[in-house]
Every structure is written in C-alpha cells, then in structure tokens.
Amino acid sequence: MPRPCKQRRICALPGCRRFGPREPASDAGSLVMTLDEYEALRLIDLEALSQEECAGRMGVARTTAQAIYNSARRKLANCLVHGRELRIEGGHYCLCGGGLPGCRASRCPHPGTFAPPAHTPPTERKQTMKIAVTYENGEIFQHFGHTQQFKLYTVENGQITGSRVVDTLGSGHGALAGFLQGLGVDTLLCGGIGGGARQALAQAGIQVYGGVQGRADMAVSDFLAGRLIFNPDELCDHHGEGHGEGHHCGEHGCGEHSCQG
Fold it and tell me: Is 238 helix (H, G, I), strand (E, B) or coil?
C-alpha cells in the first residue's frame, strides 16, 4: 500500500499566484504549480541552495526535493514555451513558523510570520455543533465535490458525543451545501474545495476549514482542541485540467499515487 505523502515545509506564500501572457492562445489552457513546487524553485534557483539543502529546508528526502524541483521546472518551461497561464496553488505542505528543525530562520523571508493558521477552540464559541468531514476509508477525502461520504460528528461542550457516516447519494458540487445544511451541519473539514462550493456553503451558514489532511477522527480532535492545521486559501484544482498536469499530490489523499518523502 503506498505511503501517505509527507507535508513539505514552505517558508512563505507567493505574493503573486497567477502569471501568463496578456493575450493567451484560446486553446493553451493553464497549468498549476503547487506551493511546494514553487518553494523548491525559490530555494534552488533564487537562493542558490543545493538540492540537499533544499530538502533540509522543506523537511523531505533529497530525491523528493529533486522530483518536486524538476516538476516545477517542467511546468515553468511549458508555460514559457507554449504561452500558457501559470497558477500557483494547492499542494501538500505546511507553513513554516521560522523555528522548525532545519529552518534557517534568518533566511526565511518572513520568519515567525507564516505559522499554520489557528482558530478559536469551539468550546469558546458554542456549546453544541455538528461537524462534517469529507470521508474515505478513515481519511479526509481531498476533493469536496466528488466526495461520496461524509462523517458527521455531534459535539456538546467540546466533546464528541456521537458520529456516523452518511452517503451523499450522488449529490454533486451544487447540491452538497444543501445536503449538509439539511443534516444540521455548521462546520466542514475538507481537503480541496472550489470557490463556488465555498460560497454555497457560506450561504448555508457552514464554516469551512479547507486543506486538511490525514485521519478524519484526528482532524476533528485537533479542531476541538484549537490546533487544527488548515489552509484558508485551499482550492480544488480539478476544475482546471482534471487529472492531467494540473493534478497535484494530495488531490485524493495520495491513496492512488506512490508519493514519497
């Protein structure tokens, strides 16, 4: 069984996440460079680190850093040669707070600034709540619009009092917000999620925590303790080129891919 992807450490989010020609070819399409690929490119090409040093900064094996870097260079070349749009988003990463092992805080662009997002523990906000998690075989499923199951957790006074798995019965992107609203859900933990789905969920009064990885039960426990690592900007890349070059590690929890590092 393939090993789960290890989160790659990045020191900063890019200031600009979208590049391309002023008049792109109508059939050129766009490519997605993940944030960990962007980080490898920044460390090796801009900071002139070796691949081994890059691996240390990102917290991965050297061969993994090399693979990430090579993928980033191919995408960049593809965009330059063929006049395609480049978007920087998604990936399997955690944001560096400037003090993690292997991080040279003095060289971090913003040391101590980009710590994983935190949130107020639910016990300080409300006594009862219902949490939904995109679910597949115990893990958080990484594409909200294609999830076939949710695991629902009933929480009272900060403690889980019950849980159950429900099938979506074929509901797609547009119907899932109403589906969850009908179940009384007020909080959603998920992986990748599109902007339209976020808007629909917000209109349904459901708070979204995207970019969450790992075991569903552990994620809910971390959420209740106020230590959940999530990405408020996480977007789903499937609305671009599907499973082509725009697909990135973490789209399906790496259950179908032999990701290393």
Answer: helix
